[in-house]
Amino acid sequence: MHLNNTTMTEEEINKMNNLIEQNNFSADEFYSLLMSLQLKYNFEIKVIDYEYYNEKRMKEAKQKKEKCVCMQNFEKAAWFRDIEMKCLQYLHLIFKMKVEKTTFRYKQNQLLFFYFGNTSNDQLIKELFTLFITNTLPQPICCCRMRNLIFIHPFFCLPCFQC
């Protein structure tokens, strides 16, 4: 049963965050907690991959975009512009929410996983999200078409050039 007008508690978020730095990380415990919370709240999951969408990538994308414009390769320039804009969007979100390390946050029926690649278990957690997708979805599907799972990293979706 999905509870529409409820929000995840701070205690539940803290449970998720405690798993990030747990010495004896249990994938089963993480997956079980994630599944139970998903069934209880029916939230979207967003992975904000700072390791990929960072200032350096934004700067590189801007430079490559400008080079493509000079070469009149506008399709490729648009692709780099989109990467630059995604970086800017995610950097703004990280700044606005004052996120400095890998963490979970809950906002407007979305479980946000800010991935920085700087804790003992965050790479494993990112990989577990892939497992969560493959067990939840019958086939790979582009991230812009997913109903309850939206991942913001090219590793997690098939390219459609719309997302």
Q: Which helices and strands occur, and which strands form pairs?
A:
Elements: H1 10-20, H2 27-41, E1 44-49, H3 55-70, H4 74-96, E2 103-107, E3 110-115, H5 122-136
Parallel strand pairs: 1-3
Antiparallel strand pairs: 2-3
Helix pairs in contact: 3-4
Structure description:
This protein is mostly helical. Helices cover 49% and strands 10% of the residues. The chain has five helices and three strands. The protein has a three-stranded mixed β-sheet. Strand 2 and strand 3 (110-115) form a beta hairpin. Helix 3 (55-70) packs antiparallel against helix 4 (74-96). The longest helix is centred in the middle third of the chain and has 23 residues, at 74-96. It is elongated. It starts with 9 loop residues before the first helix and ends in a 27-residue tail after the last helix. Mean pLDDT is 80; it is low at 137-163.
Descriptive labels:
163 residues; mainly alpha; three-stranded mixed beta sheet; 5 helices; elongated
What sort of overall outline do the alpha carbons produce when their principal axes are compared? Answer: elongated
In whole angstroms, the N-to-C terminal distance is: 30 Å
Order of helices and strands: HHEHHEEH
For the report, how would you describe the main beta sheet? 3 strands, mixed
The structure class reads: mainly alpha
Proportion of residues in helical segments = 40-55%
Average predicted local confidence, pLDDT:
80
Number of strands: 3
Strand-residue fraction?
Answer: 5-15%
Q: Tally the helices: what do you get?
A: 5
Low-confidence stretches: 137-163
Radius of gyration: 17 Å
